[in-house]
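Lab manual, section 2.4: Encoding a predicted structure.

Procedure: take the sequence of the chain (82 residues), apply the prediction step described in section 2.3, and record the output as structure tokens. A sample record is shown.
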Amino acid sequence: MRCSTGKRCFAEEALALEALIQNHIINDYPPNEGPVNVYECHQCGYWHFTSKGLKNAIFKDADTLKRIQQERRANYWERKLK
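Recorded output:
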């Protein structure tokens, strides 16, 4: 589903945060690039990614950072071995 703003919609903040993590795993953004947080849209009431503002605290969590790194590595080898 997409908002009138053109952004992808997430029904809950938790779903948007999980999608944000997955987005960083898949796209392997350089430091200080890509979406950094989520927000509730005033137009549609759903949650969207944003590249503006402060990075969400999930990116400071050691377990989350470890997970991102491990899943990036797994994705790399999965693509390489195909």
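Check your result against the sample. The radius of gyration is 14 Å.
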